[in-house]
Structures are given as structure tokens and as C-alpha cells.
Amino acid sequence: MILIGRSSWVLPRQWKLWSLPRTALTYVLAIDLIAVTITTLAVRSTLSGPHSGVRHSEWVAFGVLAVASTLHLEFARGIERRRELAANTSPHTNLKCLWIFAALLLLPLSLVVPLVVLAYTYSWFRVYGRTVAHRKVFSTATYVLASAAAAAVLRAGGLLDAPRVPTGFWSLLVVMAAAATWWLVNYALVIGAILLSTPEATAREALGELSDQIVVCAGLGLGVAIAAVQSSYPWVVPVLMVTVLALHRDLLLPQYQRAAGIDDKTGLATSSYWASAVPAELARADTLRSTVGLLMLDLDRFKEINDTYGHPAGDEALRAAGEAIRAEVRNGDLVARVGGDELAVLLPGAFESEVLEIAERIRERLVTLTVSVSTTDGGTATLDGVPASFGAAVYPAVASTMDQLILAADDALLRAKRSGRNQIVVARPNHSSNHSEDLQPNEAAEQTVSD
């Protein structure tokens, strides 16, 4: 058996891998097998070559690159999680390639492969979360094949010994050719998998955006720079981490924002992105036999704030409430503004007890939230608490479609508002709104524990 993300244990015969079209399945397994073969040959070559074994300096370089790539993934995981979800049938562009290509110039292939495996394993658990395991295995395999092809170009160009960084015109051409080879092999393998596994995808969709591939080229170029610095001034690499993170944000965050649709007033996701994210997460939950929690909430005092202090004050209160909600959800959860003062939280993989626990944390934080707002007369006022009413629903327990799930959560929210506000109402499985259970503020935590 295999554990996929945070989903339940799944028997091998139930893996999503086997549902791929026959040609796609054969293709994926063949690439995986070739990657394993290349890894075996690389290790054997390192152990039996003329300079058998790994030098101390190479182990040090491996350690530096492993730590740097892990920190990079950790700091950028919020952006990457949402970008992957938005990728759909296009290649998911990331900047792991900069560390892998730097490793190619500094290390034997037998150490490059473990770095690839480490990066994707860490991403699986910390960045991408609940996703289909065979996709990450395949991505790892494409990186291994691309790295092997690039290493062959470096050897053919005469760059046999590390560090293989450009020191003249010829070595620069060889390194550029190796980088181009790495990009082309990885890109072609990914496009092939998309076209074979998703017959309805067009070639245009599979190719993705040209700007995404420019990002990959930038990453490969930065990998050359990191390798050069690491080989001569290794203590400068931590300084370069700041540059890497800044480039990641500047290069990839705008694409993420365009895809996600960031609300200007709150910084939360817009209703349009929300509408595309919900069915994507439900489909993912179907694949992984997992769950999706949904919270819908309204700020109880929003109209009063607008009427008393003006709409700018209402915007400030809404923004503060959005920040408070984001502080209480998990990594990978999505907080969106779906209406004027109506917010929503999508909780992939959450069961009812987790949904209620998170809802209660948010409710308590909003009740105790202190917000300083601007008033219409040019002064300021302090709001002691921005309470909210909550409606909760969990897929597939209470609904089998997106519309049903949202309707169940909305109906529970309406009951919470009618029952006195500042409370949580959860929709029950296979019951109408009349059978939803009202949870008073001090009861929600007890319900969470009992479940």
C-alpha cells in the first residue's frame, strides 16, 4: 500500500495510475523505468570509475544545495501550491531546476539524482499536499532523464571534471547547450504525458505559456551562477538565497495572481478563482477518496460598521477579518471573498471535526479582534471584535456536487444568522437544512472533540 499525501491508505490496485489510458500508462511506466535504470548506471559508474567514490568537497556541495533547495521550497510553498492547482492541463513551471542544474555542474550524476528525489519528496509533503503520487514520481523521472541528457552534453563537450562552470567561450557554449538540452528533454516529456493522459487537451494548452518557459530558462541561468559561486565562494550561496526568493516572487507571483485573481480590498482570492478552485478540489478528493470541507461566513456587524463609520472603515474591517482568517487556516487552504462581506474557506482533506475546529478558532479570533478604522470625519475609531456567523459543510458527506456543497453551507450559514449570529451551524449528511445542527460558540469545540 501507499500513503498519498494526507489521504487514506490506498491499495495498489486502486491507484489512480491504473486509470490512465493504456498509451499514457505505458509511457509513464517506461519513463519511470528508464529513470531507475539511469540512476543504477550512474551509481555503478561512480563506484567503479577511474576516480571511484565521491569526494569530500562534492558531499559538502551536495549538502549546501540540498539545504538551499529545501529552504527555497519551504519559503515559496504557498505560491507553488496555488500555481500547481491553476496549471490544469499545462506544464507546471517551477524553479527547482536552478538547484538541479547547479548540481549538474558541481556533482556526479549519482548525487544529482538524490537531490531531485529529495526536492520532489519534500514538495509532495510540504508544498503540493494531497496530489496523485504517480504524477510526482513521473516529474522526478523527467528531471532525472533531463539531467542525464545534460550531463552527456557536458561530457561530449569535454567538461569532464567538476566544477564544470564556464571559464571560456567554448565551455560557455557547452554549458548553454547542456542547459538547452535539459530544458528540451524535460519539457518534451511533460508535454507527451499531458497529451497522452488528457486526450481532450489541445496542443496549445499542453504547450502552456511562453513566459513560463522563459522562467525555466532564467532558473537554469541562475543555476550556472550558483554553481560558479559555490565552487569559488561557497559562503556567498546563502546571500544568493535572497536573490532566488526575490526572483521567484517577481517571476512567478504575477502569474499566480493572474490565475488566482487576488481581491484588491482584502488580498484574498476572488469569487472567480473560487469558482474554479472548488470543482478542482472536489475532483482531486474524488481521485484520492478524500474529503473537502467548506466554510461560508458573514461578518455580523458589517452593515453597522458601514453605517456608523463609512465604507472605508468597512473595507478596513473586512481586510483585518481576512487576515485573521488566513492566520487560522492550514497551509493549502483557500480563503476567498465571494460577496460583499461574505467570505469562504475551502479546506481540502478536512473531515467534519477539523472543519469545526478551524471554524471555532476563526470565530474566537474574530470575536477578540481589535481593529482601528478611519471615520468619515477624518478621525479613527476602534472596533472591539468583528464577529461572524458560520455555515459548514463537508464533501462528500453532505453533497455530491459543487452546487450542492455550496448550497448546504449557505443554508447552514442562514440558520446561524437566524439563530442569533456569532455561531457555527454544520450541515448534516443526507439531511435538509431543517436538520442541520446548531452549534453555540462554546459547543463547537466540544463537538470537534467528540467527533
From TrEMBL:
Keyword line: Membrane, Transmembrane, Transmembrane helix
Segments passing through the bilayer: 24-47, 99-125, 137-157, 169-198, 210-229
Gene3D superfamilies xrefs: 3.30.70.270
SUPFAM superfamilies (UniProt xref): Nucleotide cyclase
Gene Ontology biological-process annotations: cell adhesion involved in single-species biofilm formation; negative regulation of bacterial-type flagellum-dependent cell motility
Location of the GGDEF domain: 290-429
Name of this protein: GGDEF domain-containing protein
Organism listed in the record: Kribbella sindirgiensis
